[in-house]
Amino acid sequence: MQENLVKYNIPYLRDSTLDIAREIDNHFAKKPINKFVLLVAIVGFFLDVYPIFLGDDVVINSLKALGRAIPIEAANRLGELVPKLLLKPETFQAGKKLLDFLCKDQNIATRLLKNTNDAEKLCEFFAKYGDEARTLFKNISKKYGDDITERIWHNPAYADDAVKKAIFKDLDTISNVNGAGKLADDISTCNNLGKAFEAEVAAKNVSNVAEVSKPLKTTSGSTDIDVFLEDGTIIEAKRFDFSKYPPGSSEYNDLKADLGRKIKIWYEHSATCNKKVVFKGSVEDGIKTWLEEVKKVVVEVIP
Question: Would you say 150 and 121 are in contact if contact means Cβ atoms under 8 Å apart?
Fold first, then answer.
């Protein structure tokens, strides 16, 4: 056991490593505990991330509970990966924050860690974003609930870490806006980036947003307003790949028909309010001309 403990010698605090390792070895000698829990206990001494003492049964029981909640393969994978973060100066702080997150935010932590792949992904996420990762997980979990946070994290449409971070950040920004909970729920189950783009547009206008995903019903039909501003402006957020679906394709025609249907409802709601369609990346010339000149709607493109 001691040989395994000593290999986690942290270069920044190595003077008393062996003595502490022996004490922990003796303390846990007759208590079954998995590798992850043992690792966290050891590193806790080195880093002072949280107050672990040999006689602190509350902390020890908390660690054991976390160890039991996480699938064993994920726990052991974390036991292998966390030291790698701690042994690199560039990821040292991120490793500390990851350990702190795992121990103090157990509910959402166990939701995020289903298997070995999740352990690797979580370590990578903290290695990239450190403090910001911890803050975003805590905020989104607190404001929208563990279920939504977990679904977004595991949604294959958001596999890229940068996409996950952007979604969490946008949802954090608009968390006090009416309708944000509904939009977050929709994002968590969406199989593409369309709903996430609605949150992005709302976040860019957050100081003027009155509501997102606002239901609107008239005699012509019903729709949701993606972003509704305090001055009555209606914004539709569209993420559409015009290079994949050129004019004449069924998808292109469906887009135009859907926009036409919604704009009719908008005008019936108010003939004078500002109306805008925001596209992600680019907009095809024909659609742009049709919206601006025929439908009298403002068109905006954001990167």
Answer: no
CA-based nearest residue to 254, from 279, 216, 228, 262: 262
- Output phi, psi for 97, to 5 deg: -65, -35
Angle between helices 72-86 and 116-144 (to 10 degrees): 90
Pull the structure tokens for residue 251: 């998808």
Spatial contact of 203 and 173, defined as CB atoms under 8 Å apart: yes
Output the six-digit token pair for 149. Answer: 């946070």
Dump pLDDT digits (tens) for 166-193. Answer: 999 999 999 999 999 999 999 999 999 9
Neighbours of 115 (CB within 10 A): 13
Q: Is 204 exposed, middle or buried (0-12, 13-18, 19+ CB in 10 A)?
A: middle
57 contacts: CB under 8 Å, gap ≥ 6 = none
d(CA 15, CA 144) in angstroms, rounded, equals 44
Q: Which of 60, 149, 140 is nearest to 103 (CA)?
A: 60
Q: Which two tokens stand for residue 28?
A: 């846990």
DSSP conformation class of 51: -
Taking 70 as the pLDDT cut, the residues of the chain under it are 1-35, 37-60
Nearest to 300 by CA among 249, 215, 224, 233: 233
d(CA 290, CA 295): 7
Place of tokens 């998808």: 251
Say how many Å lie between the first and final Cα of the chain, rounded: 54
pLDDT for the residue numbered 2:
42
Tell which residue, 164, 240, 237, has the closest CA to residue 198.
Answer: 237
The angle formed by the CA atoms of residues 168, 174 and 175, to the nearest 5 degrees, is: 80
